């Protein structure tokens, strides 16, 4: 279904994020007929370019990051007709009159994507207001990182709130735009089967793993000031935790969902120091590969920033009291994989004898690669071998069976279309972000005050030995990263 005509201004339209995600995503929506031909995309950045110069950059970005373009040459040409450019200085006056000229057309939705350093968010908000472009219907989209602690997040929220109301601010967390994350909500709240079991009485524990094989790469300078806690846990893992743990909202509506997520964050207990382990990857030397260590990559031989973290936390409410939530994320791990696993308790008694063992069901929500949801169920091993039990995965995604093309819709393109539709359900609200920092800050302050140094772990492995010990102490195991 096409969205209404819109103008989307991309501040930072020549940057990495715009070229890799935003512009190819918009092109896909254009090809799918969702972006109306009268819509306009206006790149706005510091680089001095004219419209055609920018169109060249957009075409290159789509060729490089837009997937298979076979047979889409005409579409690309038509798409480029919707693209414009303004050279602008977020901190000065250059370019603002030209942008204002673009934004005069009042028959359409207007959205501004802040795909620039967060240090410019305030400048952009102020200038949009000053130049009369911040109308009551205007939407702004802001990228992570949203602050580096509670104080900076509050300051950023206050700066944006000075010019825009909360229902105009779309804080992106692209994990929420993934098909499977939405499917998780459909599975949880669209079936009678799961909700009665979704509590500490039946769930043994929950694991969330976001593993990357890449190192810090060219982001070393930014990453070393952030670390895995700020870069991944405070936002992405926390959002996944909320969706898995929240109470059923009364409606699938923005504030109903976000109210429930906020309650989860507020119910999180402080994390005990011995329930967290941090690591830094070591250099990898192989016949073909040679990767620097974390400290070499960030250029600081004494860096105390973590590239891996594993922790156990508890949610103090009726539903989850006593059920541990384990989260881990890191770079240079053995495989690229993001998965949430709900591990149910063992059957209380085996009627098939001690040899058959007691089995557990595991519901796995896989975000990447191969997005999908599977439920591990125990069945009889087929054949004449007697009553032997095996665990098999029950696929609950059925994307192929339904001929569904949803897997091709990237999280960014889905979220941008939600901005145009005015649907904030999959965007973080200001109070959620602040509550997440309020939980994260004391943990980081603890490391700093104790002068704690992350432990080394070999590249290509699944983190520190302490992270395995964290599970072993509880008689549990991390699921394999694959
Ligand atoms: P980038 O450095 O590649 O691009 C920055 C853009 O901002 C450029 O287009 C540049 O011209 C523009 N710019 C810089 N100063 C300006 C000024 N004074 N006035 C006008 N324009 C100015 O950055 P990026 O990687 O595209 O990241 C953009 C934002 O998205 C950042 O907040 C980043 O943290 C966030 N983000 C990026 C990624 C990613 O994959 N690149 C992922 C998540 C979040």
From TrEMBL:
Note whether Zinc-finger occurs among the keywords.
Answer: no
GO MF term set: glucose-6-phosphate dehydrogenase activity
Q: Which reaction does it catalyse?
A: D-glucose 6-phosphate + NADP(+) = 6-phospho-D-glucono-1,5-lactone + NADPH + H(+)
**Pathway where it operates:** Carbohydrate degradation; pentose phosphate pathway; D-ribulose 5-phosphate from D-glucose 6-phosphate (oxidative stage): step 1/3
Any idea where the Glucose-6-phosphate dehydrogenase NAD-binding domain is? 9-183
Keywords of the record, alphabetical order, are: Carbohydrate metabolism, Glucose metabolism, NADP, Oxidoreductase
Primary enzyme class: oxidoreductase
UniProt-annotated stretches for the region Disordered? 448-482
Residues reported to bind NADP(+)? 12-19, 46, 144
Cite the InterPro entries for this sequence. Answer: G6P_DH, G6P_DH_AS, G6P_DH_C, G6P_DH_NAD-bd, NAD(P)-bd_dom_sf
Q: Which domain of life is it from?
A: Bacteria
Documented EC number(s): 1.1.1.49
Q: Which segments constitute the Glucose-6-phosphate dehydrogenase C-terminal domain?
A: 185-479
Catalytic residues, per the record, are: 236 (proton acceptor)
Which positions in this protein are listed as binding substrate? Answer: 174, 178, 212, 231, 331
Q: What does this protein do?
A: Catalyzes the oxidation of glucose 6-phosphate to 6-phosphogluconolactone.
Into which family does the record put it? Belongs to the glucose-6-phosphate dehydrogenase family.
Please name the NCBIfam families in this protein's record. Answer: zwf
Q: What is this protein called?
A: Glucose-6-phosphate 1-dehydrogenase
Q: What is the lineage of its organism?
A: Bacteria, Pseudomonadati, Pseudomonadota, Alphaproteobacteria, Rhodobacterales
